[in-house]
From TrEMBL:
Name this protein carries in UniProt: Helix-turn-helix protein
Lineage: Bacteria, Bacillati, Actinomycetota, Actinomycetes, Micromonosporales
Signal peptide: none
Cited Pfam families: HTH_20
Cited Gene3D superfamilies: Winged helix-like DNA-binding domain superfamily/Winged helix DNA-binding domain
Entry superkingdom: Bacteria
Length: 161
């Protein structure tokens, strides 16, 4: 239930990108009110996803991903994938009723043959392409767009014993 609200997902994504953020900074970056961001940051804290940065208090306190979430990726990773899938299925079910200007999407996949170092390089290059869009203030006429990139080795199936 903690991640059913799109603003909470956007806040987690923002924290993943920038490290720490105040409610005011989050509001500016996400095009939301600071009150809404503050409320949802507190809700994310309640569910154990974020924490205030140590030593910061008051209205301008910065928030960050909880240390275990940020470093292990075991708590947030599966939830992020679930939300990505949920959001994509919602899009498929409702795109015919979306405003005409938003009735398109881009979905593609590739099987590449990479070394482990190349896999890391490709991931870094994808992040570098997305970074300027993630850091900017939301332009007029924009809306949230899910971007999912999963790079992982395709392991052979285990044979039945």
């Amino acid at each position: 239930m903690a991640l059913r609200h799109p603003l909470r997902v956007a806040l987690l994504d923002l924290l993943t990108t920038v490290g720490s953020v105040t409610a005011n900074e989050a509001a500016r970056r996400l095009g939301e009110s600071s009150g809404a961001c503050s409320f949802h940051l507190r809700q994310l804290e309640r569910y154990g996803y974020v924490e205030p940065v140590a030593g910061a208090h008051g209205r301008a306190r910065p928030w960050r991903l909880r240390a275990t979430t940020a470093t292990t990726n075991t708590d947030f990773g599966p939830l992020a994938r679930e939300l990505e899938d949920e959001g994509y299925h919602r899009w498929l079910a409702r795109r015919a009723t979306a405003p005409q200007r938003w009735r398109r999407d881009e979905a593609f996949s590739e099987v590449l043959h990479l070394t482990p170092d190349e896999l890391a390089t490709v991931a870094a290059e994808i992040r570098a392409v997305l970074a300027p869009y993630a850091r900017r203030r939301a332009p007029r006429g924009s809306g949230p767009v899910g971007v999912v990139a999963r790079l992982f080795p395709l392991l052979p199936e285990e044979e039945d014993a």
